[in-house]
């Protein structure tokens, strides 16, 4: 009899009872594989890895409790109704009954994901914690081409653009943005909402190509859930600052692809007066709007907006952000970090040239208190405005130069945001190679390598705060007695040996310098001083022996400590040492690259 023989009819136990394969789960739920996959994505159920795979290593396993949880979900009945409805449509088309097919198409069963979102995220903070992938997916589909006949519906792409702009408008005008970084993959952003740090990635504004090696059906299922989730999050955030959701946008600016700055007239009337500079912009643009209406006959929607013109504010771009700013300007309970971000670009006007990433800068600059405009229709002010302080360009040749402003590259804005200060503009001038773009998501002190430009930014911030920092390499801690450092536990043994080596070299150089001064004072020639070099060589040998003894003592102490450790702690200690070696190798690699780059720069 086999070892694991179970008589027929006997109850299953162990992993055989706790886990079920995907094929058996599909048969258990009486649904198709695509519906099962979609149901698992929407419900948040994922495969498991049991310690002992009863059916084999090449199969996918699920918890039996999860499958039983799916069997009682109302959504599975909706999927069955949709499947039966599609069969009816197919049958009507086969019988060439076009009227019945059209009637069935207009009566397709629909379902909502409100209940699923409440089940998966009982509190609003839970939803914010799981918003990273949601925002990345929505921004990815918002950048795809909206072309009819493709595998992705145009309505889905427009919905993603609308949701992403609503999220960016809230983050920008409430000054919740904290970090940003430009990489090869795209642009990383990090915001802090209700104490939760949310990081997402947006692709570059380039032509996207839909490849065949991606299963868009699975991605569209994730997108369906993420759209509903982001809609609920935006609803909660807008209502937290007393704003109606969704905002009513100006169709003219939407047609001009300025959705992020589109006007929400109905909501803006409920919140305070507008700033003076915005009112001046409104007065100039309202005249242009009236002139345009005299030339062309407005349709029904434009006529309805024109009827509200006398009681609503004039047409000004950026009202979606402006209405959020008006609602939040009354709140003075912002934390120190929010206030720092709010006044970074205060009273600064920026103008964007055609070649720079417009949508990213329209999101980042207002998030830190700046005012921005761009080339094209619907912009708040023109390029000839004399109050513009910075014009962001990304090409070496300019048609007309204004002496009252500075022309800088886009990297300057992102570096100022990460440094939380206004950096000098000379290194970012047009035609120059800008400084290295440092990632704010990397802790240089922990990694063990601090880039040179990071040190420069640190000293600029210290000088702005009127603090005095020690010169690099002149710290007195490294020159202290290494034995005292070991006793006090300030640094580890490796650093103590390195400090001892530095102290020894400095003492040798100082002794040699004093000897040469004495010989020069006594008038002794260089040839006469050569026989005395033997004693100095003996001293060097003695000092090398002392250093070797120190290293041997440290190694012996380390071995004794490892012997007294338990097996678990010893493994953890070895893993820590491996991690330190890898980090040191990475630092050495960065230093070598820096050295090569400096050598190449000298040869040029």
TrEMBL record:
* Record bears the keyword Secreted: no
What Pfam families does its record include? Pescadillo_N (PF06732)
Q: What subcellular compartments does it reside in?
A: Nucleus, Nucleolus; Nucleus, Nucleoplasm
Task: Give the UniProt record's GO annotations in the biological process aspect.
Answer: maturation of 5.8S rRNA from tricistronic rRNA transcript (SSU-rRNA, 5.8S rRNA, LSU-rRNA); maturation of LSU-rRNA from tricistronic rRNA transcript (SSU-rRNA, 5.8S rRNA, LSU-rRNA)
Question: InterPro entries, alphabetically?
Answer: BRCT_dom, BRCT_dom_sf, PES
What Gene Ontology molecular function terms does this protein carry? ribonucleoprotein complex binding; RNA binding
What keywords would UniProt list here?
A: Nucleus, Ribosome biogenesis, rRNA processing
* Main localization of the protein described in the UniProt heading: nucleus
Biased composition regions of type Polar residues, renumbered to the chain: 278-289
Q: Which residues form the BRCT domain?
A: 340-430
The terms describing its cellular component in GO are: nucleoplasm; PeBoW complex; preribosome, large subunit precursor
Where is the region Disordered? 278-302, 527-546, 583-604
Q: Which residues form a coiled coil?
A: none
Q: Give the family per the record.
A: Belongs to the pescadillo family.
Record function comment: Required for maturation of ribosomal RNAs and formation of the large ribosomal subunit.
| Name assigned to this protein | Pescadillo homolog
Organism this protein belongs to: Dioscorea cayennensis subsp. rotundata
What would be the name of the gene that encodes this protein? Answer: LOC120267477
């Amino acid at each position: 009899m086999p070892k694991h023989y179970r008589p027929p009819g006997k109850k299953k136990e162990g992993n055989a009872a706790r886990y079920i394969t995907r094929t058996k789960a599909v048969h258990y739920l009486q649904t198709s594989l695509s519906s099962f996959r979609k149901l698992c994505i929407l419900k948040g159920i994922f495969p498991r890895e049991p310690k002992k795979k009863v059916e084999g290593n090449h199969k996918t396993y699920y918890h039996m409790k999860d499958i039983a949880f799916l069997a009682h979900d109302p959504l599975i009945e909706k999927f069955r109704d949709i499947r039966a409805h599609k069969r009816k449509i197919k049958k009507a088309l086969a019988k060439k009954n076009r009227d019945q097919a059209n009637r069935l198409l207009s009566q397709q069963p629909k379902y909502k994901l409100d209940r699923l979102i409440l089940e998966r995220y009982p509190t609003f903070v839970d939803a914010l914690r799981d918003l990273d992938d949601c925002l990345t997916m929505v921004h990815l589909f918002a950048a795809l081409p909206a072309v009819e006949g493709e595998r992705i519906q145009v309505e889905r792409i427009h919905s993603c653009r609308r949701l992403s702009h609503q999220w960016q408008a809230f983050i920008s005008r409430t000054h919740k943005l904290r970090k940003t970084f430009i990489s090869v993959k795209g642009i990383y952003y990090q915001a802090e909402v209700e104490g939760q740090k949310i990081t997402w990635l947006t692709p570059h504004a380039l032509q996207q190509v839909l490849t065949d090696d991606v299963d868009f059906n699975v991605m569209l299922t994730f997108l369906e859930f993420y759209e509903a989730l982001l809609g609920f999050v935006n609803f909660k955030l807008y209502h937290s600052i007393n704003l109606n959701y969704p905002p009513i946008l100006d169709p003219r600016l939407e047609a001009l692809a300025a959705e992020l700055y589109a006007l929400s007239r109905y909501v803006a009337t409920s919140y305070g007066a507008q700033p003076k500079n915005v009112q001046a912009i409104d007065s100039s643009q309202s005249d242009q709007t009236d002139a345009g209406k005299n030339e062309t006959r407005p349709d029904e929607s434009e006529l309805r907006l024109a009827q509200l013109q006398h009681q609503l504010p004039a047409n000004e771009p950026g009202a979606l952000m402006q209405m959020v700013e008006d609602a939040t300007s009354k709140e003075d309970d912002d934390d120190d970090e929010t206030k720092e971000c709010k006044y970074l670009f205060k009273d600064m006007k920026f103008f964007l040239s055609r070649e720079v990433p417009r949508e990213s800068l329209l999101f980042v600059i207002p998030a830190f208190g700046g005012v921005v405009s761009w080339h094209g229709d619907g912009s708040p002010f023109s390029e000839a405005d004399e109050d513009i302080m910075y014009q962001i360009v990304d090409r070496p040749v300019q048609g007309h130069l204004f002496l009252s402003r500075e022309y800088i590259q886009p990297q300057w804005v992102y570096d100022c945001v990460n440094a939380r200060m206004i950096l000098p503009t000379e290194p970012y001038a047009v035609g120059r190679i800008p400084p290295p773009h440092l990632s704010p998501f990397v802790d240089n002190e922990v990694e063990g390598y601090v880039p040179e430009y990071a040190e420069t930014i640190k000293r600029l911030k210290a000088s702005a705060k009127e603090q005095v920092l020690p010169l690099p390499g002149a710290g007195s801690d490294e020159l202290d007695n290494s034995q005292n450092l070991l006793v006090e536990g300030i640094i580890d043994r490796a650093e103590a040996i390195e400090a001892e080596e530095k102290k020894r070299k400095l003492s040798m150089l100082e002794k040699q310098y004093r000897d040469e001064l004495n010989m020069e004072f006594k008038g002794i020639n260089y040839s006469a001083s050569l026989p005395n070099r033997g004693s100095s060589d003996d001293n060097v040998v003695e000092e090398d022996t002392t250093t070797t003894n120190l290293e041997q003592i440290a190694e012996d102490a380390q071995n004794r400590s490892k012997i007294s450790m338990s097996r678990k702690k010893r493994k953890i200690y070895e893993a820590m040492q491996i991690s330190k070696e890898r980090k040191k190798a990475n630092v050495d690699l960065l230093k070598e690259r820096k050295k090569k780059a400096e050598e190449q720069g000298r040869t040029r």
